[in-house]
Amino acid sequence: MSSESDLTLKSVQEYYGKVLSTSKDLKTSACTASGRPHPAVQKIIKNIPAEVRERFYGCGAPLPLGIEGLRVLDLGSGSGRDCYAAAALVGENGTVTGIDMTAEQLKVAREHAARYCTETLGYAKPNMQFIEGYIERLEDAGVKAESFDIAISNCVVNLSPDKPAVLKQVYRALAPGGEFYFSDVYCDRRLPKSVQQDEVLWGECIAGALYVNDFLRHARAAGFTDPRVLTSSPIDIVDPALRAITGEAKFFSITYRLFKLPGLLETLCEDYGQGVIYQGTIAGSESAYVLDAGHTFEKGRLALVCGNSAAMVGEDGRSWLAKHFRVIGDRATHFGEFPCHKPPAPAAAAPAAAPAAACAPGNGCC
Questions:
Q1: Distance between CA atoms of residues 363 and 48, nearest Å
Q2: How far apart are the first and last CA of the chain?
Q3: Closest CA to 58 of 45, 39, 40, 49
Q4: Using CA atoms, how far apart are residues 151 and 257, in angstroms rounded to an integer?
Q5: Average pLDDT over residues 261-279
Q6: Which end of the chain has less Cβ packing within 10 Å, N or C?
């Protein structure tokens, strides 16, 4: 990394390791702009050690249900709250690995891990571990290629000075059929240097916020062909001095789903006459499953979908979701572009300038 990137990382380490004591010390809602997690996840969080919860700084709830037995990697795991929750969700046969560069946060995460797994969850042995390293260099931290089924991250990628490297590293770490399911901060424009160089705004997850169109370009370049938006909400900058620096720029907390399905995903929605049926087998989502903001699949009800959506829920059995869906049809016959409807996205729900991922909100299939 460049010397400028190293300085950025050191600034972030200082802010999260020494400046902040709890989430009450934050000056914007960026790191706490999370919507309420699923009730099943809320129940799990209540049993996580208090110190771990109090040192949590997140902008979403990137914890997918239905991940029993899977291998989960948490980028920038911090105090470990999401790892602790994931450890319960994957069960005793799954594994969770958190990676963070901040010694103070890792100390908190590691201190309670063994007791939480064996006493609170009742496992024979801990199923989670925490490693020190940089999310831009997962390979250097010992993360092997294709060794995880799910990667999660909570308001961390924006803190990286090399976001394209992060996305490429995650793609490398995921097994085919895996997914990067994460929440982060985005902006409706490219931020000027005056904002990018403000240390407090870096620590508050604002200065590093990517222009949403640039994020989509980076994601596709890394191999994630069809980024899907799950949720989006505006971020408030409550400190007057910081608001004066950011000007009219608008910031959003967005949860994205990026699937690694090489050879199956296309840049546009294509029609192959396929349909999918959700089996209702994911605990906590028995009656319906939300794939993204444009797709909610009711149990037992046939839904016509584009090829990309069919791939994401299990075409050819590649996706981690495959066991929960029945996919009808194949790609033997192409019927042209899938007839996506395109209602305008509410200004408060997503950046007005956000481009269309193939089936993104505002461009959702069916």
A1: 38
A2: 44
A3: 45
A4: 10
A5: 97
A6: N
Kindly report, residue by residue over 190-217, the tens digit of the pLDDT. 999 999 999 889 888 899 999 999 999 9
Q: What CA–CA distances, in Å, run from 80 to 58, 169, 278?
A: 11, 21, 32
Dist. CA 149–CA 175, nearest whole Å: 6
pLDDT digit string, tens, across residues 329-353 = 999 999 999 987 544 333 444 444 4
> How crowded is residue 109: how many other Cβ atoms within 10 Å of its Cβ?
27
Bin 80: left if φ > 0, else alpha if -120 < ψ < 50, else beta: left
The pairing of strands 274-278 and 251-259 is unpaired
This model's pTM is above 0.85: yes
Three-state SS across the chain? CCHHHHHHHHHHHHHHHHHCCCHHHCCECHHHCCCCCCHHHHHHHHCCCHHHHHCCCCCCCCCCCCCCCCEEEEECCCCCHHHHHHHHHHCCCCEEEEEECCHHHHHHHHHHHHHHHHHHCCCCCCCEEEEECCHHHHHHHCCCCCCEEEEEEECCHHHCCCHHHHHHHHHHHEEEEEEEEEEEEEECCCCCHHHHCCHHHHHCCCCCCEEHHHHHHHHHHHCCCCCEEEEEEECCECCHHHHHHHCCCCEEEEEEEEECCCCCCCCCCECCCEEEEECCCCCCCCCEEEEECCEEEEECCCEEECHHHHHHHCHHHCCCCHHHEEEECCCCCCCCECCCCCCCCCCCCCCCCCCCCCCCCCCCCC
Residue 312 contacts by C-beta under 8 Å, 6 or more apart in sequence?
Answer: 226, 228, 257, 259, 261, 265, 291, 319, 321
CB-facing half-sphere around the CA of 57: CA atoms within 13 A: 29
